[in-house]
Amino acid sequence: MQTTQHVLFERSEMKDRHLVRKKIREHIADKAKLPILIFPEGTCINNTSVMMFKKGSFEVGGTIHPVAIKYDPRFGDAFWNSTKYSMITYVFNVMTSWAIVCNVWYLPPMVKEEEEDAVHFANRVKAVIAARGGMSVLPWDGGLKRRKVKESFKEEQQKKYCQIV
């Protein structure tokens, strides 16, 4: 990682976030450097949806080159359902699968519009990626895989459901 100019940080540290933003801006400004590869979801999901993007990647400016990635499970499933399989079982399944097929679509570059904030820009990019990959858009992040759902989020969904009914 040291030879390829990775930008490492601790997400929970506010000071690290500001330092990373500064390093990314400096990197973008230097046209001699390679583009930065960022996975704004922060975690993987089961190949059916695109989760909420972390907004930090979209606050720094520059051009975003979206890429839609979707695994084809016909010969072997790359997704690890940690509630169903242990790590050893997952690794065994992947190593003994005939092939792991991945569809990759390089989408047209996108730039933040003048009146657009980072969250709206991230959502616009996410929607384009989801549409190309044939996936649904989720309004929450990967934290729901590991933490209990907040009561406020449940109440918001209940209100939306009541309006429909």
TrEMBL record:
<comment type="pathway">
    <text>Glycerolipid metabolism; triacylglycerol biosynthesis.</text>
</comment>
<keyword id="KW-0444">Lipid biosynthesis</keyword>
<feature type="domain" description="Phospholipid/glycerol acyltransferase">
    <location>
        <begin position="1"/>
        <end position="70"/>
    </location>
</feature>
<dbReference type="GO" id="GO:0005789">
    <property type="term" value="C:endoplasmic reticulum membrane"/>
</dbReference>
<comment type="similarity">
    <text>Belongs to the 1-acyl-sn-glycerol-3-phosphate acyltransferase family.</text>
</comment>
<keyword id="KW-0594">Phospholipid biosynthesis</keyword>
<keyword id="KW-0443">Lipid metabolism</keyword>
<keyword id="KW-0472">Membrane</keyword>
<dbReference type="GO" id="GO:0019432">
    <property type="term" value="P:triglyceride biosynthetic process"/>
</dbReference>
<dbReference type="GO" id="GO:0008654">
    <property type="term" value="P:phospholipid biosynthetic process"/>
</dbReference>
<protein>
    <submittedName>
        <fullName>GPAT3 acyltransferase</fullName>
    </submittedName>
</protein>
<comment type="pathway">
    <text>Phospholipid metabolism; CDP-diacylglycerol biosynthesis; CDP-diacylglycerol from sn-glycerol 3-phosphate: step 1/3.</text>
</comment>
<keyword id="KW-0256">Endoplasmic reticulum</keyword>
<keyword id="KW-0812">Transmembrane</keyword>
<dbReference type="Pfam" id="PF01553">
    <property type="entry name" value="Acyltransferase"/>
</dbReference>
<keyword id="KW-1208">Phospholipid metabolism</keyword>
<keyword id="KW-0012">Acyltransferase</keyword>
<keyword id="KW-1133">Transmembrane helix</keyword>
<dbReference type="InterPro" id="IPR002123">
    <property type="entry name" value="Plipid/glycerol_acylTrfase"/>
</dbReference>
<dbReference type="GO" id="GO:0004366">
    <property type="term" value="F:glycerol-3-phosphate O-acyltransferase activity"/>
</dbReference>
<dbReference type="InterPro" id="IPR045252">
    <property type="entry name" value="LPCAT1-like"/>
</dbReference>
<keyword id="KW-0808">Transferase</keyword>
